[in-house]
Amino acid sequence: MPQGWALGENRRAVSLRQAVIGLAVTLLTAVVLIKLPPVARAFGVINDAVGAISSATRAGTSFVFGYLGGGALPFDLKAPGADFILAFQALPVVLIMSVLTTLLFYWRILPPVVRGMAWLLERTLGVGGAVG
Questions:
Q1: pTM, two decimal places
Q2: Phi and psi angles of residue 56, each rounded to the nearest 5 degrees, phi first
C-alpha cells in the first residue's frame, strides 16, 4: 500500500480512513475465514463444487479433443508444461463458469448476493456505484 501511494500521481485523493478501514475489513475477513469452522467448511464445500465442475470440464474436453484437451499424450513430452494448450484446456473451464454465473443471475440467486456485498462495501468503506 505505501508503494502505491508513493508512486501515485494524486496522493491527496487517497483517503487514509478508507485505506485503514479496508485493511481492517480484509484482516477481519481473513480471521473469520480461518478461525470459524462453519465458514471454513462452507468455503470448503464451495471449493469442492468448483473443483468437481473443473474436473468434469477437463474430462469432457479431453474426451472431445483428446490430448489437446488434457488427455494422455501419444508422444514423449520433452519440455515440462509444453502440453498445456490454453484454448483447449483453460478456456472451456472459463466458459462453463460463465454459463453457471449467467444461470445464477437468471434464476435470481446471484443479484441478492451482489446487492449484499454492495451494501456491505457502502457501509464499511463508503464507496458506491461501480466501485461498491
A1: 0.70
A2: -65, -40
If you write DSSP's letter for every residue of 25-78 in order, what string do you get? HHHHHHHHHHH-HHHHHHHHHHHHHHHHHHHHHHHHHHHHHGGGGT---SS--S
Q: Label residue 1 by pLDDT band (50, 70, 90).
A: low
Contact yes or no for 70/88 (Cβ under 8 A): yes
Return the SS3 of 4. helix
Sign of CA dihedral 87, 89, 90, 94: positive
Per-residue pLDDT reduced to its tens digit, 12-36? 877 888 888 889 989 998 999 889 9
Name the burial class of residue 57, with classes exposed (0-12), middle (13-18) and buried (19+) by CB atoms within 10 angstroms of its CB.
buried
Q: What residue spans define the domains of the chain? A: 1-35
